[in-house]
Amino acid sequence: MPEFSIVDLKKEDFSVSSWSGGTTTQLAIEPENAEYKDRDFLWRVSSATVDLEESVFTPLPDYERLIMTLEGEMELSHNGGDMLRLPRLKPHSFDGADKTVSRGKVIDFNLMMRKGQCEGILRLLPETGNMTAMSLTEGILYCFKGSLSVFAEGVGEKSLSEGNALKFTGLSPEVRLSWRTQPDTIAVFAGIINNNTGGKNNGK
């Protein structure tokens, strides 16, 4: 298991790509040299803008997905079902194989996880708090708006400003994180449990 560490992820280093309904900013991908277009990654964390009133999500049959709206209001329909309203800053899970249609112009936050190889959570950070990593192995903390400070024993304090992120590796039940946000800050955390014990991800 890798040693616990926190790495700064700067917004100027994020890759931005286009999709049918807008643009996607990739914050992190595992393995780090994986390419989203090849569909052979273990997990991916991103933030997307949806610029159309109605759009169709890219099909990802090998992945489970978690999504949270950061700005704006969105409704989703899976496989022709009723439209579901997504409350802002509340996570919603669905199968990447679903035919998913969205309504509403938003900015969202996404976690994609390869089926059977990893699981995950999305959480909005309260103003102050602390957490233990529990069964999590990796995590991405993204500051969408405002700024915050994060403290971890053995690493010290890290400051996180708007548009940037922190990557946590080597998480374990012994790791304890605490934070303090500035007023009106919106910060979200994607936590990953890596069940992939086989090393390289070889697809289905």
Itemize the secondary structure elements and their pairings.
Blueprint: E1 5-9, E2 15-19, E3 22-30, E4 43-50, E5 54-56, E6 63-71, E7 74-78, E8 84-86, E9 92-95, E10 100-103, E11 106-114, E12 118-124, E13 128-132, E14 138-145, E15 147-152, E16 156-161, E17 165-169, E18 176-181, E19 186-194
Antiparallel strand pairs: 1-17, 2-3, 3-4, 4-11, 5-10, 6-9, 6-11, 7-8, 7-10, 12-19, 13-18, 14-17, 14-19, 15-16, 15-18
| Largest sheet strand order | 2-3-4-11-6-9
How many helix segments?
0
Share in helix: under 10%
Dominant shape: globular
Radius of gyration: 17 Å
Measure the end-to-end span: 24 Å
Class per helix and strand makeup: mainly beta
The helix/strand order is: EEEEEEEEEEEEEEEEEEE
Low-confidence stretches: 197-204
Beta-strand percentage? over 45%
- Count of DSSP strands: 19
User: What value does the average pLDDT take?
Assistant: 92
Biggest sheet record: 6 strands, antiparallel
Question: What does this molecule look like?
Answer:
With about 200 residues, the protein is mainly beta. Helix content is about 0%, strand content about 55%. It has no helices and 19 strands. The protein has strands at about 5-10, 15-20, 20-30, 45-50, 55, 65-70, 75-80, 85, 90-95, 100-105, 105-115, 120-125, 130, 140-145, 145-150, 155-160, 165-170, 175-180, 185-195. A 6-stranded antiparallel sheet has the order 2-3-4-11-6-9, with no helix packed on it. It has a 5-stranded antiparallel sheet with strand order 1-17-14-19-12, with no helix packed on it. Strands 5-10-7-8 form a 4-stranded antiparallel sheet, with no helix packed on it. The two termini are about 25 Å apart. Residues about 195-204 have low confidence and may be disordered.
